[in-house]
Amino acid sequence: MNVLVLNCGSSSLKYQLFRMPEEKVLIRGGIEKIGSDDAQHFYKAEGQDGQGSHEGTSTSEILDHREALRQVLHVVTRESGVLQSVNEISAVGHRVVHGGEQFALSTFLTDEVKHAIRDNVELAPLHNPANLQGIEAMEDVLPGVKQVAVFDTAFHQSMPPEHYLYPIPYVLYKRHKVRRYGFHGTSHRYVSSRVPFLVHRDLMNLKVISCHIGNGASVTAIQNGRSIDTSMGMTPLEGVMMGTRSGDIDPSIQGYVTAKEELTQEDFASMLNKHSGLFGISGLSGDMRKITEARAKGSARSALAFDMYEYRIRKYIGAYVAAMNGVDVLLFTAGVGENSPLLRRKICDHLTYLGLEIDVQANDTGKGERIISTSASRVTVCVIPTNEELMIARDTQLLVSGLESWGK
Fold first, then answer.
1. Which residues are listed under the site Transition state stabilizer (predicted)?
2. Using one digit for the tens of pLDDT, what is the confidence trace for 257-308?
3. Residue 111 and residue 116: Cα distance in Å, rounded?
């Protein structure tokens, strides 16, 4: 079964084609600047039958997602030769950011499901409309092929009410569904599913804290395989300090700053989302690599930004140790979590009260999926590269295979 996985943004899309159940990536790529006359398409087709990989790039006019997907199918079938025909694509899996309270599992895309995604646009105005664009464009370009929605929020639907509700008038939840939803759920679900292979224990008997640390960052408490709390809230702005997002702040700051600086509500929201976090404190960048380099060269503001970032992640880890009355596994994933040994070491150096002991060599020089704590450590610390696309492909295959079996 060949499964095409799509992640559509407002002016971009990323894709991977998997051969399932082998979980082999046949081709991966992306298109940027959709809606312009100089859209850029790049791809890498993996080697077939022992042959080397093939890469390609092009620039052309791509005015909408339908044309972008036509290009993807052209590359998949003709330019790269990965498939002989689009008829070899068995199903399409879509990343959808917000499923609200309606979806705790991945599901086939129907008119009712699309309507629910539209209903949640106001909760994810930057993401759900783009996800819908990709879904509807694929329906036009590849009609009749089964499509599946995999929701970033679904994994966190296991949180209990005392964890997902805010201490504001309950009527706001009943009327407007104001509550914690959480994000990065597909990533947290994938990396936690890899834990048993590393620690050789059943996930259903473990307390795991998963740190997805990229430009956007979230920390999740996973008890017995289920998310019980997560740092992102009703929107991805809440939680730990991020690349350009503020994370948690005093709500009263909005009124104070907007009055002092004569800002609109939209200006203030833009400031918190695009001009805060590492970027806001350092004045340099939201990229941890640049922050680390500047810190090493003596930049006081970059050092301050790094220290704040580490501290706020560590605070959430401590909170989730309390929430679960302990922790068995601490894991790091995503761009910064996977690639910053300095950040991991600084965080772990302040968690020795848990009996946690990091293996400096494994942390600093190791590669890929691995344990970075010592054998004497009472908490196992892991680095697990995330693979949200594979999780989407697995869910899509599972649903389509189940439907085919039922049909027989």
1. 184, 245
2. 999 999 999 999 999 999 999 999 999 999 999 999 999 999 999 999 999 9
3. 9
Cα 335 to Cα 321: distance, rounded to the nearest angstrom: 24
Q: Is 337 assigned a ligand-binding role in the annotation?
A: yes
Q: Does residue 207 register a pLDDT over 70?
A: yes
**Helix/strand/coil percentages in the chain, nearest 5:** 45, 20, 35
3-state secondary structure of 131: helix
Question: Is 214 known to sit in a ligand binding site?
Answer: yes
Q: How far apart are CA 299 and CA 296, in angstroms?
A: 7
Instruction: Tell whether 215 is in a known binding site.
Output: yes
Please classify residue 130 by burial: count the beta carbons closer than 10 Å to its beta carbon, then call 0-12 exposed, 13-18 middle and 19+ buried: buried
Q: Which long-range contacts (CB under 8 A, 24 or more apart) does 26-33 make?
A: 26/2, 26/76, 26/82, 26/83, 27/75, 27/76, 27/80, 27/82, 28/389, 29/72, 29/75, 31/62, 31/68, 31/71, 31/72, 33/62
| 226 annotated ligand-binding residue | no
What residues are paired with 217 via a beta bridge?
213
Where does 110-184 have alpha helices with state H?
111-119, 128-141, 161-164, 170-176
pTM of the model: 0.92
Q: Give how far Cα 50 sits from Cα of 29, 47, 256, Å.
A: 21, 6, 63
